Each structure stands twice: as structure tokens, then as C-alpha cells.
Amino acid sequence: MTTILTILIAILGLLIGSFLNVVIYRLPKHESLSTPPSHCTSCRRQLAWYENIPLLSWLVLRGRCRTCGSRISPRYPVIELLTGLLFLATALRFAPDLVGAPTPADAVARGSILIAALWFVAASIALAMIDLDTQTLPNRIIYPSATVIAALYLIAMASGMIGVTSAGAGSAWNGALTALLGALILGVLYLIIAFVSPRGMGMGDVKYAVLIGLTLGWHGWSYIILGVLLPFLIGGIVAAILLVTGRVRRKTGIPFGPSMALGGVAALEWGGTLMSAYLSLWGLA
Ligand SMILES: [Zn+2]
Questions:
Q1: What is the Cβ-side half-sphere exposure of residue 159, based on CA atoms within 13 angstroms?
Q2: CA of 73 to the centre of ligand 1 (A)
Q3: 57-75 tens-digit pLDDT
């Protein structure tokens, strides 16, 4: 059962990845996400359904349009594969909880947590790519995502509060409280950084930080700590590499969104493992 669910979620990831390509390409240009339907960006011909299968179509067509022969960017299948793999990682982490739920109320709570995690992963991929392309983190992704994830947490909390989940009301309250604190802590931290160095960090980063804190917070304090540390660790390494290899000059900014996405998703998927590994390194656990 867990295996079937995991495979289905990974396939869902490939399909969502295909949709994210549309979001990444069209949302910053304020274009409709549904019309016109998928087409070749070179000859404008509308794609048939079999040219639109995530990953497979690109491989079969060897990255070229069937009519005009122009190259289709490998970025499309890469985003699809990345989304599929991250959905797989999310399923491996959260699906066993859902399948092992002892009561229906538990299943509702754990299903909500799983969907919230998948939503966060998908939103983070879109935000990272759009930030790379346009140096913006659109409100039109962050606001709906925060709303959906908060609503899913309310559902999970309500399932716990009616007292029928095995974990009891206490853990549901706890999750909601740490989620709120996570959002607050990351929001305030990034707000301070944005005030101290307005060139390095924008309000988009602050809002995305709130979303990361909200998502990670449900899972506990170690996740919040990693959500604070990992983006700066990753951002520092990326900046060092780019400066050393001369890819950027010190004056030009490097968008921070991709580092936040990478750090936030890594914390969500492997937070428990990372934290216990770190603590045992210092002989603390
Ligand atoms: Zn074409």
C-alpha cells in the first residue's frame, strides 16, 4: 500500500512538474496559465497530447519540435524530473505515516500534512526558478500557498482536537503553535536582514521566509532551526563558488530565493535525520 501510494505520488510529481513549467514561464509575464494550450514557442503549433507527456515526450522527440525542428530547452524535462524526484522524497518521508494511520481522523490529519508538504515543494520549485529568471518571488504564488498550507494545518489540528487521533489533542496544538512561531521567527529574521541590507534581500524573500517557517514549524523546533541555517549555508557556498569562478561580480546581486527553496525543502525532507546526525556529531544525542 505504501509502495503504491509512493509511486502514484512520484507520477503526480512528473505531471505537476509539467504544470510548473507553464507557471514558471507564464506567471511572471502575467499570461493565462490555461490559454493558449501548450505550443511550440518557435512555430506556435499546438502540441498533441502525446507530445505533452512529462519527460517521455522530450526524450522520444530528442528535444526537438516535431514540425519545425527547433530545440526544446532541456530545462522542461529537468523541472519535470526534479519535481517527480522531490515528490518521491516527500512520499518516502510522509506516506508511511498516512498508510499507518490507526484511525480515520489520524488519516485525515496525516493526509493534510502530506499534501501541505507536497504543495510546499511544488511552490518552492516554481519560486526558485522564477527568482532565477526574473529576480522576483511573486505574491501570486506565496499568498495562495500560505493560505492552502495554513488551511491544511487547521484541518490536521481540528482532527487532533476532536480527540480521536492516536497522537491526541496535545500534539495537534503543538504542531499548530510551532508552525505559527516558525512563520513569525523566519519572517522577523528576514525583515531585519532586509532593513539592514536592503540591496541583498527584498520583501519577496521576507514573505517566502514566512511560508518556509509556517511549513517547517509544524514538524518541530529542529526543522525551524534548519530552516533558518540551511538557506544561508547554501547561499554562502553558492556565492563563494560564483565569486571565485568569476561568474558574478561582487556588485551584482545573487537571487536568494533558490537557496531558500533548496534549504527549506532539504529541511522538510531530511530535517529529522540531519538534526540527529548533527547532534550526534557533537555527542549530544
Ligand atoms: Zn515548432
A1: 23
A2: 12
A3: 999 988 999 889 899 889 9
